[in-house]
Design brief:
Elements (H helix, E strand, L loop, with lengths): L1 H36 L3 E4 H7 L8 E15 L4 E7 L5 H6 L3 H10 L5 E7 L11 E8 L5 E9 L9 H5 L2
Parallel strand pairs: 1-2, 4-6
Antiparallel strand pairs: 2-3, 2-5, 3-4, 5-6
Length: 170
């Protein structure tokens, strides 16, 4: 009878260990799969142009300088379209170019910079203007247009008084 009790206890212990291992494996799988599903790649305009079709089905976050004369807004459909020009994503490079305001200005005025058309559906942001920095999340379409789900804008010219040396230095 003691043998039966010890075999039952050993059997229960093995079931407990096996059940615990399955729970741990399920939790690890859920963490890994949810992390991969929600991953976003932060890319510059140059990187998007270079990678092309390789990034079509991925959630992306991009940044660029708004080209002012490309801004079009359809009030009825709330469709905003504009073009962004490449700006470096490296803060050291931006400082070497003379700061963010100068880098954005140079990006918009340089016709050799990579550019990307953007379409966003929603109200037109107040800060949308020439040389504003646009930070967007969305997906690149097969037509080469970036379809933004979120649009954030930074306008360094609004803060020129706070950094007069950055803006006035050529």
């Amino acid at each position: 009878m003691e043998e039966t009790i010890s075999q039952t206890g050993s059997s229960n212990r093995m079931k407990f260990i096996l059940g615990g291992a399955l729970i741990v494996a399920a939790v690890i799988y859920l963490i890994v799969s949810s992390t991969q599903a929600s991953a976003q790649y932060f890319l510059t305009i140059d990187e998007i142009v270079t990678k092309g079709d390789e990034i079509l089905d991925r959630d992306l976050r991009i940044s660029g300088a708004v080209v002012g004369d490309s801004i079009e807004y359809e009030r009825e459909s709330l469709t905003l379209s504009f073009t962004v020009a490449h700006v470096s994503g490296d803060n050291d490079e931006l400082e070497a170019e003379g700061g963010l305001a100068k880098a954005l200005h140079d990006a918009v005025t340089d016709p050799n910079r990579s550019r990307l058309p953007v379409v966003y559906e929603g109200p037109m942001p107040d800060l949308l203007q020439n040389e504003a920095q646009a930070i967007m999340t969305g997906r690149l379409g097969t037509d080469g247009v970036f379809y933004a789900d979120e649009l954030l804008l930074k306008c360094p010219t609004k803060y020129e008084e706070a950094l007069p040396e950055q803006v006035s230095n050529p």
